Amino acid sequence: MAPPGTDPAKMQQIQHFLSSVLSQRGPSALPYAETTKWLIRQHLLNLIASYASLEPKTATFTHNDGRSVILLQADGTVPMPFQGVSYNIPVVIWLLESYPSRPPCVYVNPTRDMIIKRPHSNVSPSGLVSLPYLHNWVYPSSNLLDLAAQLSAAFSRDPPLYSQRRPQPPSPSPSIGSGFSRPPPSPYGHHQLQQQQQTDDAAEVYKKNAINKMVEMIHVDLVTMRSAREAEAEGLLCLQAGLKRREEELNRGLQEMVDEKETLEQQLQVIAMNTDFLDSWIIENQTKAKNLPLGLDVENAFECIGALSKQMLDCTASDLAIEDTVYSMDKSFRDGSLPFDQYLRNVRLLSREQFFHRATAEKVRATQMEAQVASIAARLHS
To answer: Which residues, in sequence order, are CB contacts of 7 under 8 Å at separation 6+?
Structure first.
């Protein structure tokens, strides 16, 4: 089965043909994956738009193991520039069941007056084409349009076909006694035979006219139904492409939500550890609040437990003090009471010192976090 080949509306008819055959379901459906049918249709349309001599068809393909299956093919010719003249090489491009994930199968299809060149670097004696582009097929970037260009370039370097002279068929000789091949007409019953033949001719003409009228009506109905089905298939293919895009967007959104969930779970674990630490600290120091004297100095109310806590307190205090100093210097510079060179020199020195305090505080914080995790793990196991 092939699409109509009327020149003025060829592309539109090819679109309708591809939409019709790719939208079929059930036993008559082509053996391609549903998710790739819209891409197959686009590859063929792009190929026909650039190579009008090729035409999409459906035909029976027989595998090496004897299996027969109906597949899409692009049948026609590809141009072959050779020594300043353009020749047309007949080829058949079969789209196998695994297309477009796997490359198509290409055959040179010589006519009766052509012979495949032997040996040939790219074409076997059976006509099977082998190209580096087919061996290095990459889905989804590889396509039929680039394949046709590679075929034309390869054939231009080494033409795969050459013509042969066919022997002229012998002219028929007149047979002896050919003038006696028709028997003489019978002289009996000639009038009755002529009248019966006229009656039979009238009945046959009436029958043929009725059949032609019925065929014409059926053809009109089929054209109408076909146009409706092709429009419906075109809409379904567009809908399939839209659903494919939405599926990709949903997958991306779902992945972002999963990543965000993992980040929130990590933050929740950190918050849970900090909560446990604060709860244990409150329980530990709750009884101490009742024994505090009334005139307690706030500066000496807290004592650092361990060298790491004291180091963290010193680094944090120095960092905040430097921050306040830089702020005051900035205000003095804007007021004009601090020279510019002195302002830059002091800011550079203070920033260097502040960097070391912050780096030390980060190391101390990481060490304390490891100690807290180990303490919580030991408490849970106990």
So the answer is: none
Residue 73 near residue 59 (C-beta atoms within 8 A): yes
Instruction: Tell me which fold the domain 10-163 belongs to.
Output: Ubiquitin Conjugating Enzyme (3.10.110)
Pairwise CA distance, residues 73 & 58, whole Å: 6
Pairwise CA distance, residues 121 & 114, whole Å: 18
Residues in a beta bridge with 57 = 73
CB 350 within 8 A of CB 323: no
What are the percentages of helix, strand and coil residues in the chain, rounded to 5?
A: 60, 10, 30
- The reply to whether the predicted model has a pTM over 0.70 is no
CA neighbor of 357 nearest in space, from 322, 328, 309, 324: 322
Domain limits of the chain? 10-163, 300-381
State the DSSP code for 129: B
* Average of per-residue pLDDT values in the chain: 83
Residue by residue, DSSP assigns 62-91 as E-TTS-EEEEEEEEEEEEEEETTEEEEEEE
For 112-140, the pLDDT digits (tens) are 888 888 888 899 988 999 999 999 999 88
Sign of the four-CA dihedral 299, 304, 307, 311: negative
Tens-place pLDDT, residues 47-99: 999 999 999 999 999 988 888 999 999 999 999 988 888 889 999 999 999 99
- Token pair recorded at residue 90: 């007949």
Closest CA to 14 of 72, 56, 59: 56
- In a 13 Å sphere around the CA of 80, the CA atoms on its Cβ side amount to 18
What b/e sequence results for 253-266 when a residue is b if at least 16 CB atoms lie within 10 Å of its CB, and e otherwise? eeeeeeeeeeeeee
Residue 20 φ then ψ, to 5°: -70, -50
